[in-house]
Design brief:
The chain has about 250 residues and is an alpha+beta fold. It has 10 helices and 11 strands. A 4-stranded antiparallel β-sheet has the order 1-8-3-6. A 4-stranded antiparallel β-sheet has the order 2-7-4-5. A hairpin with a 5-residue loop joins strand 4 and strand 5. Helix 5 packs across helix 7, helix 5 packs across helix 8 and helix 6 crosses helix 7. This is Crp/Fnr family transcriptional regulator. It comes from Vreelandella alkaliphila. InterPro entries: cNMP-bd_dom, cNMP-bd_dom_sf, Env_Response_Regulators, HTH_CRP, RmlC-like_jellyroll, WH-like_DNA-bd_sf, WH_DNA-bd_sf.
């Protein structure tokens, strides 16, 4: 695979500069690609957890079903993300994972990660940074669900998605594709589908966000950040100073 087209290399490069040898190690994590259709289940909760997968292309999400039948979406995965990191220390899956769009997934066993750790201090450091970032994303999601208004929830989430997409696509403009249904957005934000629609309409009336089906336009990113009380510190930190001091 062409290194310049590798989403996982773009993802890791956000944290620090990579050597050609380190890029080659990451490319190995994108071997044996499997085409996956939208809606397909990657794994179910309580299934054996013995491998990770990289998302070469497409979007996916993790979720849990509640006893009353409701669904809570926990994480949204974008191209370049590694899925299953939280289960590295567990023998069973902690959540369900399903594709949002058609995509390409590359599976690799847990032991392959240990080999990567042995071969590269830099990649090991980045992997810990990514794990820390996953934790920070979940913390922000918790605050968003529990303490922000519907407008703030939506503004914060859209701003976050824009910055995450820009990490692996530096050419992204003020318009980007958000392939999430009204129901999926509701299950991410703890709202009803009707409330999601009304919130989009309210943000549009104020000129903050415009949506045309799955295309979202953010004319003023700073204004949207203010609306959502957004602080990007949990998305912008890197491990460069740590590696330099080492």
């Amino acid at each position: 695979m062409d290194q310049d087209k590798s989403c996982i290399i773009s993802h890791f490069s956000h944290y620090c500069s990579l050597t050609e040898a380190e890029k080659a190690l990451l490319i190995e994590l994108e071997e044996s690609p499997t085409d996956i259709k939208a809606g397909s289940l990657l794994w179910e909760i309580d299934a054996p957890a013995n491998e990770f997968c990289t998302l070469r292309s497409g979007w996916a999400y993790s979720y849990r079903h509640l006893e009353n039948g409701d669904r809570q979406i926990l994480e949204v995965f974008l191209p370049g993300d590694i899925i299953g990191l939280r289960e590295f220390a567990f023998s069973r899956r902690l959540e369900n994972v399903r594709m949002i769009t058609d995509g390409v997934v590359c599976h690799f066993p847990h032991k392959r990660m240990l080999e990567l750790f042995r071969q590269s201090l830099t990649l090991t450091s980045v992997m810990f940074a990514i794990g820390s970032r996953h934790q920070a994303l979940l913390t922000e999601r918790l605050v968003n669900l529990a303490r922000r208004s519907a407008r703030q929830k939506m503004a914060h989430f859209l701003h976050e998605m824009y910055l995450r997409l820009r990490q692996t696509n530096h050419d992204i403009s003020e318009q980007f594709r958000l392939p999430l249904s009204q129901e999926q957005l509701a299950d991410i934000l703890g709202l009803s589908p009707v409330h999601v629609s009304r919130t989009f309409s309210a943000l549009s009336e104020d000129g903050l966000v415009f949506r045309d089906r799955h295309n979202v336009t953010i004319p003023n990113l700073k204004a949207l950040a203010t609306e959502g009380e957004f602080d990007d510190c949990y998305l912008t930190d890197n491990v460069r100073p740590l590696l330099i001091s080492a």
